[in-house]
């Protein structure tokens, strides 16, 4: 299992080196609509290649940043246009999710910008899910894009910068960041749960 994942990663990186920005664009679009592609590892690898002189780091940064904005926008509009249709196709799923989506829509109207930013970085694994929720609940697109611009800037700067700075050692650093990122993500999620639980209890007591 591990060996096959390593082989897949090696194939992905080699394909990127051959087709560069075109291949990267495809992966970013897929990730934007919710298909996992291991994009953060590839961005670190591209930073390492830039460090070796294969790419211009500033041009690469601009291209990746722009593509992530497009990818998130594609994800948003895909779910905004077809999300309800997908739910209607599965009535049981729609019945289960509709009440949750209404509550989520209320949450997004108050805390959408925070949710979008932290799911670009550091909780990037949840980014596609938030794209879908923002689209289905028809969160204002202009607010979505302006917030994504900020969040994706930090995401691209971090992963591209790590690859560029550590160069050939990027694979070792990638493993450490993945483990550390999971820990940070769990801590942030726990803090969010505690915060909103506290707010809910405070409202119940006041009422």
From TrEMBL:
The keyword Cytoplasm does not apply. GO terms for cellular component: plasma membrane. It is a multi-pass membrane protein. The chain crosses the membrane at residues 21-45, 57-79, 144-165, 177-198. InterPro entries: DedA_domain, VTT_dom. It is found in: Cell membrane. Keywords: Cell membrane, Membrane, Transmembrane, Transmembrane helix. Residues 40-164 form the VTT domain. It holds the Pfam family VTT_dom. Belongs to the DedA family. This is DedA family protein.
């Amino acid at each position: 299992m591990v060996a096959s994942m390593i082989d897949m990663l090696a194939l992905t990186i080699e394909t990127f080196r051959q087709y560069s920005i075109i291949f990267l664009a495809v992966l970013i679009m897929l990730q934007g609509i919710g298909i996992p592609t291991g994009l953060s590892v590839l961005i670190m690898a591209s930073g390492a290649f830039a460090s070796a002189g294969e790419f211009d780091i500033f041009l690469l940064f601009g291209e990746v940043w722009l593509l992530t904005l497009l990818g998130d926008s594609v994800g948003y509009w895909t779910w905004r246009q077809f999300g309800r249709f997908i739910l209607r196709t599965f009535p049981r799923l729609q019945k289960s999710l509709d009440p949750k989506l209404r509550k989520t829509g209320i949450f997004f109207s108050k805390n959408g910008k925070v949710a979008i930013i932290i799911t670009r970085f550091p909780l990037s694994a949840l980014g596609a899910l938030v794209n879908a929720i923002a689209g289905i609940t028809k969160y204002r697109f202009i607010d979505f894009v302006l917030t994504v611009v900020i969040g994706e800037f930090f995401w691209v700067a971090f992963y591209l910068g790590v690859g560029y700075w550590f160069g050939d050692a990027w694979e070792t650093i990638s493993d450490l960041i993945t483990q550390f990122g999971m820990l940070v993500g769990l801590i942030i999620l726990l803090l969010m749960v505690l915060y909103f639980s506290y707010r809910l209890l405070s409202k119940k007591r006041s009422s």
